[in-house]
Amino acid sequence: MDFTFTEEQQAAAEAAQGVFAGVAPDGVPSPALTRGAAVADDFDRALWARLADADLLSLLLDPAYGGAGLDAVALCLVLRESAKALARVPLLESCAAAAVVQAYGGPASGSAAAPKTALLTAAGRGEIVLTVASHGRTGHDPAELAVTARRDGDTWILDGVQTAVPWAHGADYTVVPAHVPAHLAARSGADRVDPDHAEPGRTILALVPRGHEGVVHAEQVSTTGERLAEVRLESARIASADVIDADGAWEWLRGLLTTGTCALALGLGENVLRMTAEYTGRREQFGFPVATFQAVAVQAADRYIDLRAMEATLWQAAWRIASGTQGALPTAGDIAVAKIWASEGVRRIVQTAQHLHGGFGADVEYPLHRYHAWAKHLELSLGPAAAHEEALGDLLAAHPLG
């Protein structure tokens, strides 16, 4: 089999390299590491406009919506480049949210498709920004269980809390997964769940506009020093036209977000190892560059092996999502393996980099501490390695390979 990237995928990566070439990785220092540092109120709008001009926000959208019609592999190639510069844009969240609306949200043609077409076309041009509430109530429980939903005529009523929602203060819409509890199926009247649209235990996706009635954003700050939001929904009414009610939509979106996070971890790790190689190559002890010392070389080699494992498992997961190929395990198995390697690998890479940089690695005038903070955030986002190891174990138990 030929696993080389297509010309279109390579072109997307090259375009991303051009856009991110001049982006400094030290835009907003972490308040935990720099005294008095302020959290940015918004993402990098100028960079967002350049991404739109390069047609990198519409990679996953069909030509009917002004997109390139590419796949998860192309998106991961672009995300990989963005992480090298610690680009402060909702690239993963907005592209993934637009993709799930395209795949699962409403009709693709006819008069009823007009709102969907308008939303996706604007999102591809960067005029509408989307994000996803994917961390649940505490960051450790399933996101789809943090908010409950019940149908009331032509609307859905949402109640619950989603924590650590990225870019929510600047996004036009937040995609919120919500759960229809089983006990609502037995109710009657306005609370009665239509079994044709919302089975007990089913997850729906609601597109919640910023500033919507019944929605409150509370301030939070991430490990990276970025502004997050705790999104509280208090009897928020969402029109049925803004709700994705389709089997598998949330699982597909969560898988794409997790795989994209692995791509970010890979790009970050690659740049950190490059920085470490450059530093140890010019830092001398006893008249020789420290990179020539065996102990340093062995540690760097181990981290290179981590990167190659992160890369191999990432492309396997992205290819499974893009192709829809069925294997011995569901696609979720490959995604879990990729996230295990991404979480463990990026943590080891930044720890080794800090160690080999010595005291210089903790200097806030040098960008390595920013990469360390971002690495910790990516390690834990959408579940640490242990959570995905448990999920992989459950999959293996349900789908024995013998």
UniProtKB/TrEMBL annotation:
UniProt cross-references to InterPro entries, sorted A to Z: Acyl-CoA_Oxase/DH_mid-dom_sf, AcylCo_DH-like_C, AcylCo_DH/oxidase_C, AcylCoA_DH/ox_N, AcylCoA_DH/ox_N_sf, AcylCoA_DH/oxidase_NM_dom_sf
Q: Which residues are in the Acyl-CoA dehydrogenase/oxidase C-terminal domain? A: 261-388
Keyword Hydrolase appears in the UniProt entry: no
The family line of this record is: Belongs to the acyl-CoA dehydrogenase family.
| Top-level lineage group | Bacteria
Name the UniProt record assigns to this protein: Acyl-CoA dehydrogenase
**SUPFAM superfamilies assigned:** Acyl-CoA dehydrogenase C-terminal domain-like, Acyl-CoA dehydrogenase NM domain-like
Q: Which UniProt keywords apply?
A: FAD, Flavoprotein, Oxidoreductase
